[in-house]
Design brief:
With about 180 residues, this protein is of the alpha+beta class. Helices cover about 15% and strands about 40% of the residues. The chain has one domain. A hairpin with a 3-residue loop joins strand 1 and strand 2.
Length: about 180
Protein backbone atom coordinates (compact mmCIF):
# COMPACT_ATOMS: atom_id res chain seq x y z
CA UNK A 1 0.00 0.00 0.00
CA UNK A 2 1.59 3.33 -1.04
CA UNK A 3 2.21 5.98 1.62
CA UNK A 4 -0.24 8.90 1.79
CA UNK A 5 1.61 11.99 0.40
CA UNK A 6 -0.29 14.18 2.89
CA UNK A 7 1.71 12.49 5.65
CA UNK A 8 5.11 12.41 3.99
CA UNK A 9 8.13 13.14 6.21
CA UNK A 10 9.12 16.78 6.53
CA UNK A 11 12.79 17.69 5.98
CA UNK A 12 14.79 18.57 9.09
CA UNK A 13 15.42 22.07 7.68
CA UNK A 14 12.61 23.10 5.31
CA UNK A 15 13.38 25.61 2.55
CA UNK A 16 10.84 28.30 3.50
CA UNK A 17 11.64 30.53 0.52
CA UNK A 18 11.04 27.69 -1.93
CA UNK A 19 7.80 26.78 -0.13
CA UNK A 20 6.58 30.38 -0.35
CA UNK A 21 7.39 30.49 -4.06
CA UNK A 22 5.46 27.24 -4.63
CA UNK A 23 2.40 28.62 -2.81
CA UNK A 24 2.54 31.93 -4.70
CA UNK A 25 2.91 30.06 -8.02
CA UNK A 26 -0.11 27.92 -7.12
CA UNK A 27 -2.17 31.03 -6.27
CA UNK A 28 -1.04 32.68 -9.50
CA UNK A 29 -1.81 29.60 -11.60
CA UNK A 30 -5.25 29.15 -9.97
CA UNK A 31 -6.04 32.89 -10.11
CA UNK A 32 -6.81 32.95 -6.38
CA UNK A 33 -6.37 36.70 -5.87
CA UNK A 34 -8.02 37.63 -9.15
CA UNK A 35 -11.11 35.70 -8.00
CA UNK A 36 -11.07 37.40 -4.61
CA UNK A 37 -10.70 40.86 -6.17
CA UNK A 38 -13.65 40.14 -8.49
CA UNK A 39 -15.67 38.95 -5.51
CA UNK A 40 -14.91 42.21 -3.67
CA UNK A 41 -15.91 44.32 -6.67
CA UNK A 42 -19.50 43.33 -5.93
CA UNK A 43 -20.23 46.51 -4.08
CA UNK A 44 -19.63 48.11 -0.75
CA UNK A 45 -20.04 46.68 2.70
CA UNK A 46 -22.56 48.22 5.03
CA UNK A 47 -21.58 48.80 8.64
CA UNK A 48 -24.22 49.85 11.16
CA UNK A 49 -22.05 50.72 14.16
CA UNK A 50 -22.76 48.54 17.17
CA UNK A 51 -25.34 46.45 15.32
CA UNK A 52 -24.13 44.72 12.17
CA UNK A 53 -21.68 44.59 9.31
CA UNK A 54 -23.05 43.07 6.09
CA UNK A 55 -21.93 42.58 2.51
CA UNK A 56 -18.83 41.06 0.98
CA UNK A 57 -15.77 40.03 2.98
CA UNK A 58 -13.92 43.33 3.44
CA UNK A 59 -10.64 42.10 4.91
CA UNK A 60 -9.58 39.82 2.06
CA UNK A 61 -7.51 39.46 0.07
CA UNK A 62 -4.84 40.44 2.55
CA UNK A 63 -1.43 38.91 2.02
CA UNK A 64 1.59 40.11 3.94
CA UNK A 65 5.09 38.82 3.50
CA UNK A 66 8.09 40.10 5.38
CA UNK A 67 11.73 39.23 5.75
CA UNK A 68 13.67 39.93 8.93
CA UNK A 69 17.43 40.27 9.27
CA UNK A 70 18.73 40.55 12.81
CA UNK A 71 22.14 40.60 14.45
CA UNK A 72 22.66 40.55 18.23
CA UNK A 73 25.76 40.36 20.36
CA UNK A 74 26.84 40.90 23.96
CA UNK A 75 30.35 41.48 25.25
CA UNK A 76 31.16 40.86 28.92
CA UNK A 77 34.19 41.95 30.95
CA UNK A 78 35.00 40.47 34.37
CA UNK A 79 37.66 41.70 36.74
CA UNK A 80 37.55 40.68 40.41
CA UNK A 81 34.42 42.37 41.84
CA UNK A 82 33.69 44.35 38.67
CA UNK A 83 31.47 43.10 35.85
CA UNK A 84 30.61 45.12 32.72
CA UNK A 85 28.35 44.09 29.81
CA UNK A 86 27.76 45.86 26.50
CA UNK A 87 25.21 44.70 23.97
CA UNK A 88 23.63 45.61 20.67
CA UNK A 89 20.77 44.35 18.55
CA UNK A 90 20.47 45.58 14.96
CA UNK A 91 17.58 44.56 12.76
CA UNK A 92 15.85 45.31 9.48
CA UNK A 93 12.41 44.16 8.32
CA UNK A 94 11.54 44.24 4.60
CA UNK A 95 8.08 44.01 3.03
CA UNK A 96 8.65 43.12 -0.65
CA UNK A 97 6.03 44.61 -3.01
CA UNK A 98 5.27 41.43 -4.97
CA UNK A 99 4.14 39.56 -1.85
CA UNK A 100 1.86 42.17 -0.27
CA UNK A 101 -1.74 42.74 -1.28
CA UNK A 102 -4.13 45.02 0.57
CA UNK A 103 -7.57 44.91 -0.99
CA UNK A 104 -9.75 45.64 2.02
CA UNK A 105 -11.58 48.79 0.88
CA UNK A 106 -11.54 48.40 -2.90
CA UNK A 107 -15.23 47.43 -2.98
CA UNK A 108 -16.20 50.40 -0.80
CA UNK A 109 -17.62 50.64 2.70
CA UNK A 110 -20.56 52.65 4.09
CA UNK A 111 -20.38 53.35 7.82
CA UNK A 112 -23.54 54.44 9.63
CA UNK A 113 -23.22 56.05 13.03
CA UNK A 114 -24.80 58.85 15.08
CA UNK A 115 -24.28 62.37 13.63
CA UNK A 116 -25.98 64.76 16.12
CA UNK A 117 -25.43 67.99 14.07
CA UNK A 118 -27.41 66.40 11.20
CA UNK A 119 -30.17 65.11 13.47
CA UNK A 120 -28.99 61.50 13.16
CA UNK A 121 -29.45 60.08 16.67
CA UNK A 122 -28.02 56.57 16.16
CA UNK A 123 -26.46 54.28 13.59
CA UNK A 124 -29.86 52.70 12.89
CA UNK A 125 -31.42 56.17 12.49
CA UNK A 126 -28.68 57.05 9.97
CA UNK A 127 -29.41 53.86 8.01
CA UNK A 128 -33.15 54.58 7.94
CA UNK A 129 -32.55 58.17 6.78
CA UNK A 130 -29.88 57.11 4.27
CA UNK A 131 -27.20 59.36 5.83
CA UNK A 132 -23.88 57.54 6.28
CA UNK A 133 -21.30 58.96 8.68
CA UNK A 134 -18.56 57.92 6.25
CA UNK A 135 -17.88 56.22 2.95
CA UNK A 136 -14.48 54.66 2.33
CA UNK A 137 -13.28 53.55 -1.10
CA UNK A 138 -9.86 52.26 -2.11
CA UNK A 139 -8.47 53.05 -5.56
CA UNK A 140 -5.41 52.07 -7.55
CA UNK A 141 -3.15 49.09 -7.22
CA UNK A 142 -3.77 46.79 -4.22
CA UNK A 143 -0.06 45.87 -4.12
CA UNK A 144 1.64 48.22 -1.72
CA UNK A 145 5.27 49.18 -2.35
CA UNK A 146 8.45 47.89 -0.82
CA UNK A 147 8.68 49.20 2.69
CA UNK A 148 10.65 48.36 5.75
CA UNK A 149 11.99 49.59 9.00
CA UNK A 150 15.08 49.10 11.08
CA UNK A 151 15.75 48.84 14.77
CA UNK A 152 18.80 49.54 16.86
CA UNK A 153 18.93 48.59 20.54
CA UNK A 154 21.94 49.19 22.79
CA UNK A 155 22.57 48.46 26.45
CA UNK A 156 25.33 48.71 29.02
CA UNK A 157 25.38 47.23 32.49
CA UNK A 158 27.99 48.03 35.14
CA UNK A 159 28.03 45.97 38.33
CA UNK A 160 30.22 46.08 41.42
CA UNK A 161 30.02 43.42 44.12
CA UNK A 162 31.52 43.40 47.60
CA UNK A 163 30.45 40.66 49.99
CA UNK A 164 26.66 40.61 50.08
CA UNK A 165 26.38 44.12 48.63
CA UNK A 166 25.96 44.56 44.88
CA UNK A 167 25.59 47.84 42.99
CA UNK A 168 24.27 47.69 39.47
CA UNK A 169 23.76 50.49 36.97
CA UNK A 170 22.02 49.81 33.64
CA UNK A 171 21.22 51.94 30.61
CA UNK A 172 19.34 50.89 27.49
CA UNK A 173 17.93 52.58 24.41
CA UNK A 174 16.06 51.50 21.30
CA UNK A 175 15.51 53.45 18.09
CA UNK A 176 13.27 52.57 15.17
CA UNK A 177 13.92 54.10 11.78
CA UNK A 178 12.50 53.90 8.26
Amino acid sequence: MPADPAFAPVPAEPDHVALEHRVLELWDRDGTFDRLRKQNEGGPTLEVTGIASVGRQRVTPLVRRNYRVQLSDTISYFRAAHHVKFGADVGRVFFPEAGNILGSTFGGRYIFSAIPPLGVTSSLDGLQKGIPAAYIQGYGNPHYPDEGYGTLALFVQDEWARGRLSLCNQRATQKNRD
